[in-house]
Amino acid sequence: MVQTDTYYMQQALREAQKAFDAGEVPIGAVLVMQDRIIARAHNQVELLKDPTAHAEVLAITAACDQMGAKYLPDATLYVTLEPCLMCSGALFWSKIGRIVFGANDPGNGYAQKVKTSPFHPKTKLEGGLLAQECLALMQGFFKNRR
Known about the structure:
Layout: H1 5-21, E1 28-33, E2 36-42, H2 45-48, H3 55-67, E3 76-81, H4 85-94, E4 98-103, E5 124-127, H5 131-145
Parallel strand pairs: 3-4, 4-5
Antiparallel strand pairs: 1-2, 1-3
Helix pairs in contact: 1-5
């Protein structure tokens, strides 16, 4: 069964909710190939005490391990927040085929840090899918922390 971008972003939102429930910044990601989720992840920075344990990086690592490959040109990453510069670098090196993100991140997103795309030249990028839902989860998290 072929799923839609919305379905996969909803799955990323489920991952983000797991992060929220664990006291992590609520960002979730799923990696899809051939209409199948091959990796799921959410932020685990606090749990792992690792500043690189972002949802995108954990999803890339899991997908590459499962596929037995270091490149993912046929994969799509669905992530609830615009990737940061660190995650953009990991996505560049994975040669990911497509990135679909939810909400923009005006404070830490890649677009605030660089003038040109930090992604592989063949990577397709789309933003704003379920942005309100993604943003509401982030805002709820930080509101509760204050």
